[in-house]
Every structure is written in C-alpha cells, then in structure tokens.
Input
Amino acid sequence: MYQLEGKTGYAFVCWRTLLLGDIAINLCGNFLAIVLEFGFAICVRSDRSSESRVASRCRPTYLLRTYAEVLMMLLAFIAATMPSIRAPSLHKVLLIASTYSLRFSAAYTTLPVFNGPRSTAEVSRSMSASAESDVEIEIEKKFAVNDQTSAILKSYGFDVVQKEEFVDWYFDLPAPRWKFCLDDCWFRYREKKVKIMNNWGWRGAWQVKRGRKGTRDTDGMTTYEELQGKAAKELILDMLPETIATEPIELECKSNSQYSTHDIPYLEGGEQLVPFARVETFRTCWKATSTENEFSGLKVDIDKADSGYMVGEVEALCDGISSKEDVENEKEKIRKFVDLITRESESDDEAATIGKLEFVLMKESPDLYNACVKAGVINEPK
Output
C-alpha cells in the first residue's frame, strides 16, 4: 500500500504526476469537444436536411455532460495539488475518488469526430437508404369528422394505437409548368416528429403517391401506388423532362418566398422543383382491437391540419403484387365501413370529405387546384 500522506514519498509523487497529466489530457479533449460542438451548431444552420435537425436536437445532452466532466476534472486538479500537510485524509479521499471518476468518465465518453457540415447529397443518400421500402398499394376513402366519430369507432371495436405529428412538403415544377400533379403523381417530403433518447427531433423521407389519371372513383375512393426513399427519388428524376433536367428554369419562383421562414427540403438533381404546399398534421391512428373484427384489416386516421381543418380516412394497404380482385375486395370493405360511420354520425357536410392537400390548394393555390380538377385528378366537391 502506497503511503499517500508522505509529502515527499516517491509513490505519491508518481501517482500525482500521472493523475495531473491525465487530467490535463482530458481537459484539453473536453475543451476541444466544446469548441467542435459550437462549430457543429453553426454549420448545421446551413444544412437544411432533417437528419441534421435531428442531430442538432440531440447535441445539448452530450454538451451538458461535457461541461459537467470539465467541472469534475477541475475539482480533481484542485484535489491533486492540495497541500497534504493541512488535510492528509481529505487529500487521500479526493485523490482516489477523482482517479476512479476520471477512469469511469473515459469509459463512457467519446470525443465527437467533426468532419465539417455534411453535404445535402450525403444526407439525402443516407436518409434514402434507411427509408427505402417495397412498393405498396394504398386504397383509401375520406369521411367527415365530428364529435361523434370517436364514439362510433369504439362501438365498432376500434381503439387508438398511435398518435403522430408530421409535416408534408409537396413539390412540382414552377407555375404554370406543373407536371407531376396533373399526372396524378404527388411528390412530397414527409418529416415526422420522433423521439431519440430524451430528445425530440424530425426525421424525413421522400415519398411518391402515383395514381392513374381518370381512374379515380366518383365516390372519392382513391388507389395509389406508394414509393419511399431511393425508389421515390429515382422515379421523380426519371420523370423530369430532359430539357428541364439539363437546363435551369429561369422563372421567378414566388412559392419559395412564401416559405422563406422554413428550411425547404432539398433533392440533388431536382433543383428545378419548388414547393407548392406545406401541411402540418396531427394524426390519431385507430385499428380494430380484435382480429375477428370484420374490419380488422383496415386503419382509420383522424387528421387535424395546422389550419384547424379535420378529416378522417379509412385505408387499406396491399403489396405491389396484389391481384385486381384483392384490391376490389378491399375497396368494398372500405366503402361499407365509411358508409356505417357516415350514417351514424349524421353528417351532411360533403365539403369536409376533401383531403388536407385539396383544402390547402383551394385556399392558397386556386390556379393549381382548378388545373387539377380540369385534368381529372381531383374531384370537384358537390
């Protein structure tokens, strides 16, 4: 056992020298971490990707821990340099405690490696890799929502399974050169609010809902092919006209100024695309609690937009290889359930059956809305 109280003891001198060196190294490392954290905070402001915004919300926890470790090391430094003659016992306790604290801290702390701000291309590639999925067929029908809706859903054996908050950005070529919307192809970037450890942030992915112009049912039933991530981006870039893909569009994009206070998502290779709508949504998801329920394969979403507009939708998902007969069976099941909900809710508000996006277009982009109605991709409300 080393004699720590001995002021000139060789073991004590070696121990204290090593400890002071360890403290100095760790202090420098943590000060460097703090500097890099501030550099990250500055650079992330110029990166408009959702991944960077999620990361920026997760950094404060790490930074706070770094500050605490710097304070602990300063106390350890004081303990290591304290005159042992005045307080030998306290010196011994603090010296041993600080040594083990430093070793515990080193085991659970990793100095962040800062490589500068990531390019939006790198972020886009990483996001698409995680969001890529198989093609799905989405069948849905909207209905009006009122105070009776929740009770009606519960009476049919449905219960709330999830609540979500997300923001949808819809893109097309600048007006009046709309292309995708008029082909019933809706290209959007969806950012979902997610929780990572004890922090909230936003995680986004590119999506495409592609229908077939002129095949929308007269009762508002829609059938769309859904793609996400890499498949969605490749589809849109392939659909861009060659002259547009190779030559910049020299038009004043007024829609960009409309969203100047927001971080507009960016797609590499699709610089000509501009947002024409932004919709914030608070969604409550309902599903049947029993697999024996007649409508167990259906999901009900009750959406409330940031404008206050509310709408419900009953949907079913099929894989990309489902037969036409399977799709028609799901349609009939959805129609039956929506009819039951509508009949019991005693709602005659036909205008409320339009979607959130259609509502936004009617209010904010009437020219685009009228063009979509004329093209047959939106049913004009009765």
